[in-house]
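Work Package 3 committed the consortium to producing structural models of liganded targets before the mid-term review. Because experimental data for this complex are still outstanding, the team generated a predictive model from sequence and the ligand definition alone, so that downstream docking and mutagenesis planning could proceed in parallel. The input record is reproduced below exactly as it was submitted to the modelling pipeline, together with the SMILES string for calcium ion.
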Amino acid sequence: MQKKLLVYVFLMALISAGCIKEVKNNQVVMQKITGLKMPESVVQAKNGKIYVSEINGFGKDGDGQITVIENGQAHLFAAGLDDPKGLAIIGQYLYVADNRKVLKIDLAGAKQGQIEVFAAATTFPEMPVFLNDLEPDIAGNLYVSDSGDLKGLGGAIYKINPQGKVTLVINGKQDARILAPNGLLMDDSGEVIMAVDFVSGILYSYNMKTKTLNDVAEGFGGGDGLVHHSNGSMFVSDWKNGKVFSVNLAGDVKEVKSGYQSAADIALTKDEKTLMVPDMKAGELDFITLQ
Ligand SMILES: [Ca+2]
Ligand SMILES: [Ca+2]
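The resulting structure, written out as tokens with the ligand in place, is given here.
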């Protein structure tokens, strides 16, 4: 009884501090963030801060931005980007796939918020068309998907080493199944990368050592975000149909939530209790409490 009371007091203290808005069955429910400008991707840093990329005008340069959410409040973190999409954090840096280039933004210290170009368009083996998702590996390399023309041409996946050197992993010329790779997910070995395709809605796993591409699951429509939960399951978003799915270890697909206008690049919170879903066309960041 006393323990329950303590938990209650703790949760009430959090609510009054503005960290959270609602508690259901002793579980913290984060309140939806509204008023975002075409949010595409989201990531949470170790310190709890949540960063969201906002495309704003699609195809319009200079109006893209990164918003930071602290204690449920959204603030501008970095401005002057073009069409920022995939986000990844390595150390104290936030990496952003911004149209045809990858940016690096300091998250802390004197240079906080300062933007530099990490991989320029001209450093790619082929001119990128629509850089989309970013995924780090344990060695500090970054993988980036190029969704091409979003219709099946020009799709590719690239690797960027910590020094910013870009090499090709696989593209549509090598394997015709690579149409418009979007969400990426690296396994713990650093050898197998998974990719969900925006055109075919198929989830693939690609072994970079043996160079084999395998189908894992399908039916994800306009596949966008792809994340892994430490319990073994994965979550995939379908941008075109506004849905979020779970995929278990056996490859069974289950719908988790529907009704979004466009469920973009999802991410898990650091405690893995919540799935964060940018609803791009609605301009919202939704939070799904996981069971
Ligand atoms: Ca823009
Ligand atoms: Ca994406």
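Reviewers should note the following from the model. The pocket of calcium ion (ligand 1) is lined by residues 55-57, 60, 63-64, 82-83 (CB under 6 Å). These observations will guide the Year 2 experiments.
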